[in-house]
Amino acid sequence: MPFRQAHAVVGALVQEALTGSQSLQQLIATSPDFDADAQQLIGSGVGVQLRSSPGAAGPLAAQDQRTRFALVIASLRTSLAI
Length: 82
Description:
Blueprint: H1 3-19, H2 24-30, H3 46-49, H4 59-80
């Protein structure tokens, strides 16, 4: 499905979830536009977990940033003899 079409379909489902009686998960599960894997992509925290590029907020990317930051601090302390 092209991005623009997917954006429109998901937007309509989100609007329906906000105004109707079904959750977004329920709407995705019954939508003919999505397969069973789609439900796994809208769970709580999934978006953050999937962020993996350098500088992203995902847990692995954040851990990498903390590690690199600690190395920079250690290097500066060594060079400044602190």
